[in-house]
Design a protein that fits this description.
It is built from nine helices and 16 strands. Strands 4-5-9-8-7-6 form a six-stranded mixed beta sheet. It has a three-stranded antiparallel beta sheet with strand order 1-12-13. The protein folds into two domains: 69 residues, no CATH class; 240 residues, Beta Polymerase, domain 2, CATH 3.30.460. The chain is globular, with a radius of gyration of 24 Å. The protein is α+β, with helices and mostly antiparallel strands and 316 residues long. Helix 6 crosses helix 9. The structure holds 2-acetamido-2-deoxy-beta-D-glucopyranose (4 copies). The site of one 2-acetamido-2-deoxy-beta-D-glucopyranose has 2 residues, from loops. It is a single-pass membrane protein.
């Protein structure tokens, strides 16, 4: 009995010793991989971002570091946080899956039948890339002003975030602007539903926006539409629901999922000279959505990015 106890005790000690050795080796390997490069990194890569990096392949990491360096002067320095509770819907009807399935999915937003990136009511037929870009810029300018005044927090996402990465502008071939807002600010914008900003930009909020599970025909929660062109900003709401533990998401299928730290705090920056906010880990977020090749692919849609001009130039 006694002998057995001693043996067990020794085995336990030995196991402890090997555990410590293994942890030591893992730590050494980790540090030898990550610390040397860290000295060359720009300081905007934070400790939390480092926790994400081991998940990403080495060459991918180098692209991310390069991309981070490219955007390091894009920020004004202002941060804006959103609390986790702002993302959690206070109503509970949507949490009941069996009830939710019964919610109809009638399409709310209608697009022009000759161009599904224009509003059906106001869309023009003779718009050029140039005209669309001007219209979108004026729309985001009015919306940014409105948001500032109302305390509404929004951030650029998807293709708009990618175009921002290149030169803080909208791609010349883009046909819309994508932004996200929190669940809490959906309530705020809903109060302005069916009103015009500056007699021109129409705020239209989808009645299905309070349901946070996927609806194929109602992925977009709100739109800001320029009535002089039919061009619009697509707004999607980010909320935390029972759909996925911990992650926050929109209504796409599959949803775009985010970790809280990926988006918040927001960083103030500019898009076409207009003050906007971008996600905390904008680069990681873009890498997740479009892959790291999107940081280097400088030819698209017959446009080439010319570094000397910092512009996409049409080359036919
Ligand atoms: C932002 O808010 C989150 C959740 O409320 C909090 O955990 C985090 O520390 C805040 N970050 C900053 C920079 O204030
Ligand atoms: C969910 O909805 C079903 C059908 O309407 C209802 O019978 C059930 O009690 C609800 N469950 C909860 C938890 O609310
Ligand atoms: C485009 O069409 C609108 C009406 O559909 C018209 O008012 C405008 O003058 C046209 N612009 C050009 C450049 O043709
Ligand atoms: C916004 O207004 C439209 C038109 O009146 C209405 O159908 C829709 O339900 C409203 N949206 C919200 C979220 O109340």
């Amino acid at each position: 009995m006694k002998f057995k106890e001693i043996k067990f005790h020794h085995v336990f000690k030995a196991a402890n010793f090997y555990f410590v050795v293994v942890i030591f080796v893992i730590t050494l390997v980790f540090y030898s991989h990550f610390i040397p490069q860290q000295q060359n990194l720009n300081p905007t890569i934070t400790v939390i971002e480092y926790q994400w990096l081991p998940k990403i392949l080495q060459d991918t990491k180098n692209s991310l570091v390069k991309a981070e360096q490219k955007i390091q002067n894009f920020n004004t320095g202002k941060l804006l946080n959103v609390s986790l509770t702002a993302l959690i819907p206070q109503t509970h009807d949507f949490k009941n899956d069996s009830t939710f399935v019964k919610v109809p999915d009638n399409k709310y937003f209608y697009e022009a039948n000759w161009d599904n990136h224009l509003d059906a009511r106001w869309g023009l037929k003779n718009l050029t890339h140039e005209k669309i870009k001007i219209s979108l810029t004026e729309t985001i300018k009015a919306f940014s002003k409105f948001s500032n005044k109302q305390g509404l927090r929004f951030w650029i996402c998807h293709g708009t975030l990618l175009s921002w990465y290149w030169n803080k502008k909208i791609f010349p071939w883009d046909f819309d602007i994508d932004i996200q807002i929190s669940w809490e600010d959906l309530n705020l914008i809903s109060k302005h539903n069916q009103t015009f900003l500056e007699d021109r930009f129409f705020i239209d909020v989808n009645p299905w926006s309070k349901f946070r599970y996927h609806q194929q025909h109602n992925v977009i929660d709100a739109r800001i539409i320029d009535k002089t062109t039919g061009c619009y900003i697509d707004i999607t709401v980010i909320a935390k629901t029972t759909l996925s533990s911990g992650l926050i998401h929109d209504k796409s299928n599959p949803p775009h999922y985010y970790e809280f730290e990926e988006l918040f705090p927001l960083h103030e920056t500019e898009l076409e000279g207009v003050k906007v906010w971008r996600p905390n880990f904008a680069i990681l977020s873009l890498a997740n959505e479009y892959g790291v090749t999107s940081f280097e692919q400088d030819y698209f849609n017959k446009y080439k990015f010319i570094p000397e001009y910092q512009e996409w130039v049409y080359i036919g």
